Structures are given as C-alpha cells and as structure tokens.
Amino acid sequence: MATATADAQVASPVICPHVGPSFLSKPAPTDSVYREDCTQCFDSIDDPTGLDLCLKCFNGGCTGDRDHAKLHSITRSHPLVLNIRRTRKVIVRDEPPLKMSKLAIAAETEADRYETTLTVKCLDCGIDNIDRFDPAVAPVVAAVMSANTFSRKEEVKAWEQELTSCEHILCLQQGEPRKIASQDLGHCSKCDLNENLWLCLECGNLGCGRAQFGGVNGNSHGLAHATEAKHGVAVKLGSITPEGTADVYCYTCDEERVDEDLAAHLANWGIILSERQKTEKSLTEMQIEQNLRWEFSMSSEDGKELTPLFGPGLTGLKNLGNSCYLASILQCLYDIPAFQKRYNGDVFFSDATDPAQDLETQLQKIGDGLLSGRYSKPDSDVTVSQHSAEVPYQKGLAPSMLKHLIGRGHDEFSTMRQQDAFELLQHLIKLITRSKHSLELGDPTKSMRFLMEQRLQCLHCKKVRYSTTEQDSIFIDVPLEKLPAAEGEETKYKLVSLKQCLDNVTMPEVVELKCPSCDSKDGFSKRTLFKTFPEFLVVNARKMAIVNWVPVKVDVPVIVDDKPFALDAYLSQGQQPDEEALPEDAPSTSNVPAFVPNAEAFAMLEGMGFPKVRAEKALHATGNNDANAAMEWLFAHLDDPDIDAPLVFGGAKADAGAAADPEKLAMLESMGFGGPRAVKALKETGGDVERAVEWLFSHLDDEGGEAEEEASADSEDKNVPVVGSRELPANFQLQSIVCHKGTSIHAGHYVAFIRKQLDGGQSWVLFNDEKVVKVVDVEEMKKFAYVYFFKRV
C-alpha cells in the first residue's frame, strides 16, 4: 500500500517487554488483515483516534468509547498493536468519474488522498510509543501495511471472475478435422444473424447465441443445437483474440468456462488463432456495462438532484461490486422492529474468538451501523464546488465481513456475481434461525412467519384432509397479458392488482390424485389459505416469461394500495363439524394418493430434456395442465435441494421409509442430533435433512418418543398456533419494497424503498447503495417491485 506515512509526534520510544516473537507475527498470504475498520463496529482508521491493528492475529479494533481493541487484547492476550490513523485530503470533483473499461481494479495511490500516521503501542503496558523501526517490529509493520486488506480482497474478487475448465472441455471429442469455409463463418446456420455467433467445438456447427443486453440480437440457435446434438462446448467467434482469450461456454454446465487448448480445438476446424481479431464485446464486458447502466433516477422531475438524507436509520451501504441485492435486503430487514430490537445498535461485545468470522457479531455490527446514525454523514472525500453538480452522498458502510459469512459454503452467494435478492433473503433467514443466539436472544425472523393451511377434498366421496405448513413468505405468479403494440414498439403488459394475484394463489383448483379412501380417480379439489397471519408479510412477485427457452424477467405493473387493506377473506376456517376426514394411515401403499401427470404436458417437458421426477413435480405444483407454467416453475426452483427427490403426496407420514434412512440419520448425528429426536424430525419433514434441522431447532422440548408424538397429534387442533396470529381484522400496509431493473434477477440493479418517519411526517426513502434520499412519488416503483414487505397495522 503506497501511502504517505508519518510517525506520531510522541516522546522517545520506550522499550516494552512484550516485543518479541511470542506477540508478533507476519501475515501469510492467506491471512486476512483487518486494518481498515473494526471487526465489531464500523469505526475506522479515519476516526480521530484511528484503529488498533493486532500485530499477532491482525484483528482490527476501534479505540474510541467502545474500545474493542482493548477488549480483544484482554481476551486474546495480544498486547501489541499498530495504531493507524488517516487524515483525509480534500478532493474537488468537477468532472464525472472515468468510464470503467476493463475488469481489473487498478491499485489506488493513497498518498494522493491521505496522510497516514503509524504508532506501535502495547495495550498491556500502556506504552504508546514503541519504536516501530525496532528490528523485531519493523518487518511486521511493513508486512501488515503491504498485505491486502480483507475488504480489498473482496473488491478485487468483485471484478476478477475466476473462470475454470470443466470435464466436458477436458474430455472434448472433436469430429474429423476440416476447414470451415469463410463464407460459412459469416452467419448462423439456422438464420441470417451475423453477430453473436457461437461455434460448436465438437462438430463445427455455427449458431447464434441468446439475446443480450444492449441490443445484441440472438435466437438461441446455438443453445438449440447443444440441446439436440448434446454437444456442450462452444466458443463465441467475435470474442477470440490473437492472445488466445475468448468466451467459451459449456451448455451442459450452463457456465462460462476456460479452454486451455483453445488454439488446438480451433485449428481442428481450420481456424488459426493468431489470425483472429476480436470484433465483439465479451460476456464479462457486457455484464460490467449492464451493471453500470442499470440505475435508478436520483433526480426529481425538474432535473434537480434529490437531497440526501442523514441520521439514525438512514445509513447507506457501499456496493462491493454486484452486492446491491444484499444491501437492499439488509435495509428492509433492519427496518423491521424485531430486527431493531435484536440488533439494536447498543454496545455489543463479542465473545467470539474471531469476531470477523462470527455471524452474530457481524449482524450486530450491521445493526449498529445502520441504526445508530453514527456513520450517516456526507462523504468528506468529496467537496462540492460551484461548478460541480455532484451531491455529497454518504461514503456508505462496506458489509464485506457479513457478505463473506453469508456466502461461506454456498455455491452462489460465495461468488461475486449478482444474485437473486429474494433467494438471499431466504438464505439469510435460515442462517439466523439456526444460530444458537436466536435460541438464547430470540429469533427476529419469527415476526415474518405464519401458517398456510391446505384443504383437499375428494370430488367423489367428499372426504377432506387439512395440512399445515410454516412459511416466512409467499410467492405470487403475476399474470402476463400483453397489450397491443405497433411493430418495433416496446412490449407492455396489462395492469394487475395485488388482490388479483392473491386471489390466484388462494383460488380452488382441481388436481388429479387417487383417493386413499374410495379409490376414485376423479381427483381432488385443492385450496390453500392462511391459517395465521404474520407481523410482517413478505411477498415475492414472480414476473417471468420464456423467450427462446430462456426465462426473462418482464415488467408487469402490479397495483398496490398505499393505504391499509384487509386479508380477512384469505383466512382458513379449518375443518368444519360436518366434514369427514380422510384416513391418515392407508391400509396399503396402493391407497396412498397417486399423482397422475397430464400426459401431453409431461411429454412436452420430457421432450425439452427435463428428468421425469422434475417434470412430475413441476406439473403437480402448477395445476397439472400447462407445460409452459411447469417449465417456468422448474426454472425458478432449479436450486431447490429436493428438486430431484421423488414426489411424495400425503404429508410427512407417507414417507416413513425416507424418515428412517440410516444415511440421513448419520448426517443429523454428525451435527449433534441423534436418537428418537432425529428419527422424528426426519419423519415430520418427509426425510428432508435441511428441514429436519430446522424442525429440531424449533422443537427443542420434543424428546421424539411415540407418546409425545401421539399426544401432539391428538392435540394439534387444540393448541394455539406457534407462529402468527388468527386475530381479525388482519390489516396490512406496504412498508418497504425491493425493486429491480434488468431482464434477469441475476443481473441488473436492486434498490430499496422504505416508508420512514421523517421530521415532516411519513415519507418514502430510496436506499440506492450508499445513496439515501427522500422521494416524493413512489407509485411507479411500487408497480415494478420484486419483493414486498407488508406490515400488520
């Protein structure tokens, strides 16, 4: 790190008995050095007293009133620290920032921006002026100051996509060598497109790619060829450079890849690498351009910049590179009272050995940062001049440590790619629920939980079955009805109301099932309603259309009233006295309700390449009559852990075999759960290990014995519901929304709009990463929201 450094103006250096190998270490390349902000709060090296960096384990600790540095020193017996304090230089910015043109992040010259003061201290002895040029100290100081900081490593990963090869490339079998005529390389083999062309490295076929952001056309003929011929590996012709780089895509993996033998693979088709010239943007370049362009307006109708807001609950989050999905969800969650109570910004001292790697500590740190208002102030790096139109927004808090923990061990959230904000919300809820601190201090996600009750009635014998599931959100499939448009005009969709969407979710439907009581195949009437209502209702609006076999998000306006509205009509009344229940235990497996998929729709799905189990599940979930609806469901649930598990109908008890699976029992035992409790957890959750863990955490008093199970079954309907409330009226009002711009939920840009109490009364506030501004009209944004948070009022 190139910085202007200075020694603190203190008295002559003092000798400390702790100076030595026992209390000094140099960071290894894999070590994280937290020399920018405290691991327990967002106090940083820019504060008046600076930051103390532990010279043994490289933890960063604040030195102000909270003095997390001293706490760390005492608990870990690490007395020696390097105090780092920066003084910011004033920058007057009269020109817009340069356009980003490449993927790598250039190293900053901090000497042009900061004056950095370094002081070596011993917190045990109280010595504030240890000689930092001491032969034992100097190499350690130099090493920690030159090492990549934790946040810098995260920033670099944000733009450096680590691409790898795959088995389909390493084991590529090419056809007989031949030279493809130059005229055959000019357009798609199935259409006249002459750009966005992908060469199949297995057989030499040339097909156009999918349509891309920025007006790049495509009819997905390359994908169609890969599906039909089962040839997975292709290269984008226009991206090939003489140096050997190119866009290589494996359709089998559905991932961008690297081909180390690209030159040889191209030569098989008579294409000489050194003679090629790059003529089109690469996938990565288009992704960067797309993320830069998707922006929400930060100005009013008259063109004036919106005035930034500052104060408690009005703190922005810095974009770490494709992290707006995280920032928008965090802003909405920390607006919920249960989250504010649990992570309320009060002084929090972590008992974790490594605070940066402790989820509870980082959630508390975010709570302190967002709610306290201590960090909600204009960025002092920027000074507005009379010629500058720039508004001094906040610098924003960098949630690097929390993001790292959320993504740890997760295939998607551990990357720096843009992610689905709603999927992130569900993942974060699971992490918080499973935390041991949620058992001790209360689970803030409980305010989002409720019960849904499904009613099945045989159309022949009229017997019924009620089943209950606990949820923390609901999906609404938004109807897609295109409006008439002239040729060349942008496609627009008919307005729909939130009530229409809720009606669709809760309306009765007929499903093709065999009755376990009368053996009739007439089917069942199925309806799902709320059994209880939560304090905060989270709604995910799915607005997906299939274009060229690719799911694309479309902007369908959903009308949501700003005033409170009632959900009373969606409350289930439960089993009525005159209704006869279906038998819980069928005498034989032949009497277990059997799902018969629609033959035509099932054949279409199988013809598209979907496995039998997935096709059956999708048809069962979407009403068993529409192949397109089933395909959309499949695209939305590809990452479900049980996507390939056989479809089981009739509740958890119908899957007793799966519940007793020895391998699943062993997995639970390795997590510390064993005996009758583990058996019952698997039985209650249909053999799903992940759900079994959640069940165990929410049923700590259940010993798993048969007596307890029978007693629980006998009194199920008599007990008060664990989550949610059946009290009426059930009035809800929109409190916050996560909005998205872009054609894919895995790209584009996310922001949050939250209803806040400001000095002038209630107002909507836009949280666009670090920018926090008051907005006057949120009606247009409400129409195109992706996730809604409704508050019970």
TrEMBL record:
Substrate binds at residues 198, 210-213, 249, 251, 254. Gene3D superfamilies: Cysteine proteinases, DNA helicase RuvA subunit, C-terminal domain, Zinc/RING finger domain, C3HC4 (zinc finger). GO terms for molecular function: cysteine-type deubiquitinase activity; zinc ion binding. Residues 596-637, 659-699 form the UBA domain. Residues 164-273 form the UBP-type domain. The active site is at 324 (nucleophile), 749 (proton acceptor). Transmembrane segments: none annotated. Keywords: Hydrolase, Metal-binding, Protease, Repeat, Thiol protease, Ubl conjugation pathway, Zinc, Zinc-finger. Its EC number is 3.4.19.12. SUPFAM superfamilies: Cysteine proteinases, RING/U-box, UBA-like. Zn(2+) binds at residues 188, 191, 208, 221. The keyword Metal-binding applies. One of its GO terms (biological process) is proteolysis. It catalyses: Thiol-dependent hydrolysis of ester, thioester, amide, peptide and isopeptide bonds formed by the C-terminal Gly of ubiquitin (a 76-residue protein attached to proteins as an intracellular targeting signal). It is an enzyme of class 3 (hydrolase). The keyword Nucleus does not apply. One of its GO terms (cellular component) is nucleus. Belongs to the peptidase C19 family. This is Ubiquitin carboxyl-terminal hydrolase.
